[in-house]
Amino acid sequence: MRAVLPVRVRGKEASGVLFETLAHTLDLTCTGARLGAMRRPLAPHDTLTIFYHQYRIEFVVMWSRLLGKNEYQVGLQSLSPENNPWGLHVGKSEMQPLARVSSHGAA
């Protein structure tokens, strides 16, 4: 489901540098998310912790795509899938898996 939520992101970028930054979600599923406004290069299999209100959710990076100068979108998969890791009140039919985005940007 499309949802723009402000989140705090903690992790380690591809070069090994630890970071904490603000970003936002673009899409959510019951097992993952797509982030926008990331300013850090990340690689598949990097792990991140997302903080949203009282929720702390662990993710692994599935893909990362450079959109412009130093701005990335990132596809995430939850490390501990739950029915509703975001605490949102939505039906299961609204929380469907996201299509994987290719390196060319097609969904």
Could you describe the 3D structure shown?
It is a single chain. This protein is mainly beta. It has one domain (6-81): predicted glycosyltransferase like domains (Thrombin, subunit H), CATH 2.40.10. The chain is built from no helices and six strands. Strands 1-2-3-6-5-4 form a six-stranded antiparallel β-barrel. Strand 2 and strand 3 (32-38) form a beta hairpin. The radius of gyration is 13 Å and the shape is globular. The model is unreliable at 95-107 (pLDDT under 50).
- Shape by Cα distribution: globular
End-to-end C-alpha gap: 15 Å
The share of residues in extended strands comes to: over 45%
The pLDDT mean sits at 82
CATH fold category name = Thrombin, subunit H
DSSP summary, beta strand count: 6
State the name of the first-level CATH class: Mainly Beta
Main sheet characteristics: 6 strands, antiparallel, barrel
Corresponding CATH superfamily: predicted glycosyltransferase like domains
Question: What is the number of helices?
Answer: 0
Low-confidence stretches: 95-107
| Estimated radius of gyration | 13 Å
Annotated CATH architecture: Beta Barrel
Proportion of residues in helical segments: under 10%
Output the helix-strand order. Answer: EEEEEE
Based on secondary structure, the structural category is mainly beta
Strand order of the largest sheet: 1-2-3-6-5-4
**Structural domains: how many:** 1
Explain the layout of strands and helices.
Blueprint: E1 6-12, E2 18-28, E3 32-38, E4 47-52, E5 55-68, E6 71-78
Give me some keywords for this one.
107 residues, six-stranded antiparallel β-barrel, disordered C terminus, single chain, globular, Thrombin, subunit H, mainly beta
